[in-house]
């Protein structure tokens, strides 16, 4: 694509640059994940200053058309992953329903003594070790959520399960435990260093925190789940119906 600024035009340079960028990011290679040229190279090609170019880029970042990734560069933002409050299928199932293949970037299993909130939820001794499952997940080259799950010991999970399979499929098929009820808490927060490194964002960037409490058909707790989502990649939809 030919990127050319008209320096004789009455249209401000940063507006022209913005319009050119809007056309550039429609190109298939950028939609598919190719990084934009760096600011120095792009400013040179457009024959404008980096500060002028940055005004244009910042506008598209604000509109959530572009995202900056720490240590990587600027790329076209992926479509947001959306979850409905009435649809609490496992992450794998939600993504599968949208025709998106889930990728596990990291998967860690350990036995730990959790914090008091987790022990209280499961009504177990505070020194009781529980299975902890941590997963960095997303699509293709785009990790956007970090999950931490704890499970009640009565389920019988031993840590050798193939957690690349959908979680609730494992519980139901292998352990005859059916996830029946989910209660959730949502919170906006700033990313700490640990989460920022996992999600490839800056410390202090906004993220969505989702806490999920899962119960079986008899009302017994089975999973305590924490999810940390990159804000620009996730929308949570609440659907309500009025009772008459």
Mean pLDDT: 86
Question: Which structural class should the secondary elements be placed in?
Answer: alpha+beta
Low-confidence stretches: none
Let me know the largest β-sheet: 6 strands, antiparallel
N-to-C SSE string, H for helix and E for strand = HHHHEEEHEHEEHEHEEE
Strand order of the largest sheet: 4-5-6-9-8-7
Give the end-to-end Cα distance, rounded to a whole number of Å: 57 Å
Radius of gyration: 22 Å
Give the strand tally.
Answer: 10
CATH topology of the largest domain: Chorismate lyase
Explained architecture:
Keywords: DNA-binding, Transcription, Transcription regulation. GO terms for molecular function: DNA binding; DNA-binding transcription factor activity. InterPro entries: Bact_HTH_transcr_reg (IPR050679), Chorismate_lyase_/UTRA_dom_sf (IPR028978), Tscrpt_reg_HTH_GntR (IPR000524), UTRA (IPR011663), WH-like_DNA-bd_sf (IPR036388), WH_DNA-bd_sf (IPR036390). Residues 11-79 form the HTH gntR-type domain. There is one protein chain. The chain has 244 residues and is α+β, with helices and mostly antiparallel strands. The protein has eight helices and ten strands. The strands form three sheets. It has a six-stranded antiparallel β-sheet. α1 (13-24) crosses α4 (50-62).
